[in-house]
Amino acid sequence: MSLPARMSSKQAGIPAAVVGILAAAGLYTAYSYTQPSNKVFGGGLAGGLKLQTSEAVNHNTKRLRFSFPRPDAETGLTYVSSVLTASWPKGSFTPVLRPYTPVSNVENPGFIDLLVKKYPEGKASTHIHSLKPGDSLFFAFPIKAYTWEPNRYEHITLIAGGAGITPLYQLIQGILNNPADKTKMTLVFGVNTEDDILLRDEFESYQKQFPDRFKIVYTVSSNSIENTSPEFRNGRVTKELLKELLPPSSSGDTKVFLCGPPAMEDALTGKKRGESGILGELGYSKDQVFKF
Ligand SMILES: Cc1cc2nc3c(=O)[nH]c(=O)nc-3n(C[C@H](O)[C@H](O)[C@H](O)COP(=O)(O)OP(=O)(O)OC[C@H]3O[C@@H](n4cnc5c(N)ncnc54)[C@H](O)[C@@H]3O)c2cc1C
């Protein structure tokens, strides 16, 4: 975004700080296209990345592929990381900063895929959904959420709600794509309707490939569920369901990773100080639960 020629930021009524941010964004965009570094998220600002494809995966979510300036450029990301984006929705001079978690294999060069759920009135998600192939989105820097250590736990439980699946999917990929990592996993994926199950093909493929190590249970909260297969349950993520699926908290070789809407996280870990939520009632200590 540039100001009209010969018009100063003061004349245009734009705060100097915003002009500074825009100038820095522009410079770093140019920088990212000229630097020899082969890691897009390797340090400094990543810059503008071009949207290659944008595909609706259900009624409110799109999968968007952003290509790197060079096809052999690496992501520079490690498990589990998100990337901070800056959007300038129409009419907005101040950037809207929002993190998103790549769902493409972070070890693949050339691009990243984001899975973005659109919220009604959501500033960044509405802007990102409006992008067309060839448009650019500005990426600031990576945010490291968790450093995964292969074989640290014998078994882990992953509990996701809706679009909260993305960091858990990145972790699942990191584990199952590494032949040296033998960690077993149970994924409990809570959704409103069956249509809201994201990455279903990817999960089914992993289940076929790793039947002894990767178990998945979908729990659908609307009453409309028709699927009668054993991995489908009705309702929310409840204490009874987790009691059935989780290994005992006393087996020290286990951990729970959680990412979902605030109401779900509150129910599972407690809302107020001192409350332990469902996981606490099942004997899981705070150290045994990681919230993305
Ligand atoms: C580390 C991290 C990783 C993330 N990764 C992803 C990802 O891979 N994919 C993805 O789609 N999102 C992801 N998010 C969420 C994302 O960063 C934004 O918060 C989301 O896209 C909404 O931003 P917005 O500007 O569109 O909405 P806003 O303008 O901030 O909010 C608009 C409305 O939507 C509601 N709303 C906003 N966010 C949520 C929410 N999470 N749950 C329920 N209601 C909400 C608000 O209450 C408000 O009413 C991640 C968040 C974090 C912290």
Bound molecules: flavin-adenine dinucleotide
What summary fits the major beta sheet?
6 strands, antiparallel
**Low-confidence blocks of residues:** 1-14
Number of strands: 12
Oligomer: single chain
Percentage beta strand: 25-35%
The CATH architecture classification of the largest domain is 3-Layer(aba) Sandwich
| Cα gyration radius (Å) | 21 Å
Give the H and E element order.
HEEEEEHEEHEHEEHEHHE
Number of helices: 7
Question: What's the CATH H-level superfamily name of the largest domain?
Answer: Nucleotide-binding domain of ferredoxin-NADP reductase (FNR) module
Structural class assignment: alpha/beta
Q: Count up the domains.
A: 2
End-to-end gap? 33 Å
At the first level of CATH, the class of the largest domain is: Alpha Beta
Which strand order does the major sheet show?
4-3-6-1-2-5
Describe the secondary-structure layout:
Layout: H1 16-34, E1 47-56, E2 61-67, E3 81-87, E4 96-100, E5 111-117, H2 123-130, E6 136-144, E7 155-161, H3 165-176, E8 184-191, H4 200-209, E9 214-220, E10 232-234, H5 239-245, E11 254-259, H6 262-269, H7 277-281, E12 289-291
Parallel strand pairs: 7-8, 7-11, 8-9, 9-10, 11-12
Antiparallel strand pairs: 1-2, 1-6, 2-5, 3-4, 3-6
Structure description:
This protein has 292 residues and is of the alpha/beta class. The protein folds into 2 domains: 39-144, Elongation Factor Tu (Ef-tu), domain 3, CATH 2.40.30.10; 155-291, Rossmann fold, CATH 3.40.50.80. It has 7 helices and 12 strands. The protein has a 6-stranded antiparallel β-sheet. Strands 10-9-8-7-11-12 form a 6-stranded parallel β-sheet, sandwiched between helices. Strand 3 and strand 4 form a beta hairpin. The chain is globular. Residues 1-14 have low confidence and may be disordered. Residues 82, 96, 98-101, 115-117, 119, 121-125, 145, 163, 166, 261 line the site of flavin-adenine dinucleotide (FAD).
